[in-house]
Amino acid sequence: MSYLADTLWHRLAGPLGELDKSELGYLFLPNRHMPLLMRRRATMIVNRVRMFAFLFAVLTPLWSVIDFVVFPPSLWVTLALMRLLASAAFATLLICYRPSGNLFDAYRAIAVLFAIPTAFYVGSHTLLGTYQLSELSAAIGAGYAFLPFVLLAGLSVFPLTLIENVFISSPILLAQALAGYLSWSTLNWPSFAGSFWLLMLITGVSMTAGMSQLAFMTALVRQSVRDPLTGAFSRGSGEEMLELQLGLANRNQASITVAFIDVDHFKSINDRFGHEAGDKVLITLATHITAALRRVDILVRWGGEEFVVIMPNTDLAKARTAVERLCRLGLGTAPDGTPVTASIGLAERSIDGAGDWKALIEKADQRMYHAKHNGRDRVCFGAC
């Protein structure tokens, strides 16, 4: 049974970007995503929204040339005005939106992007229905009906979850149904049903493509944010998380403490026993630290034998208690059986007046050096 389940998993999830089973939920609901994935996904969504806004802002008014050739003057003027308004809305979206890393900003951007052509589609479809068009003008007018297809096909370029895809595509599908209702008396129902089925099919393909992008992005982020040796977060991702957590703490006036940890006499371990033995010491140390931390705490390998622990919603007293307990539990042993120790510096946002994460890290680093210069195997905080 287990073999069958594993085989089925690889058949279904393999094309979705080498996801772990624990990450399957990432494809359905966005609230399960790690903060770094949310931030990078939000940035990508806004950048692609701006790309689309630029294309639509340029191309939308150009089609007025075709309208001028085939439509009556009164219809052309009204459509041209609608196109100019839509183009101005796209240009505003392009100019006003910048990537912030905030997922709700990304939602607003993509909602506005899809709302503009959807409103244009409903308005133009209603307007064209009031005119008796023939031959070439009727063919061009029929081309307006393809706008929902273009929009739903465009969903494929966004790394979206299933629920996000449903929320974005639903208004467009409803707009198509509304357009059919408004032309109820003259509607060719077999043609409309076939078009709507094709629209649903395109929506399904776009959803699959977007979720595949999300799966691939999840796998890339997972690989890039972790230090391959210890499994702790890498320095680059640690800096992002520090900036994110400190920003949250500043907005909420909450405590946040960082611990800067440097392994004592690590160079001598490498010199005496070799770098492979030194790597095992770092792996064991990271394992011990992770086991002693809360789930909300973040372990970062800062470089070499240096680690940083980010402790959100933790004041200096609680951080000191947690770190001293960690030291009592032990950080592992060296190849000769002696206990591994570390010099640790603590810094807290409000007490140390850190305006940004770099200042917070610098203060913790200074205290770590103070602990090292005063005998090692100790924790330095406050005015020490």
Low-confidence regions = none
- Count of distinct strands: 5
Which series of helices and strands comes N to C?
HHHHHHHHHHEHHEEHEHE
Task: Determine the mean pLDDT.
Answer: 88
> Biggest β-sheet: count, sense, barrel?
5 strands, mixed
Percentage of helical residues? Answer: 55-70%
- Separation of termini? 60 Å
Structure description:
The chain has 384 residues and is an alpha+beta fold. The chain has 2 domains: 2-224, no CATH class; 235-380, Alpha-Beta Plaits. Helix content is 64%, strand content 8%. The protein contains 14 helices and 5 strands. It has helices spanning 2-13, 35-62, 64-70, 73-96, 103-128, 135-143, 147-154, 162-182, 189-225, 235-252, 266-273, 275-292, 316-329, 357-373, and strands at 256-263, 298-303, 306-312, 342-348, 379-380. The protein has a 5-stranded mixed β-sheet, sandwiched between helices. Helix 5 packs parallel to helix 8 (162-182) and helix 11 (266-273) crosses helix 12. The radius of gyration is 29 Å and the shape is elongated.
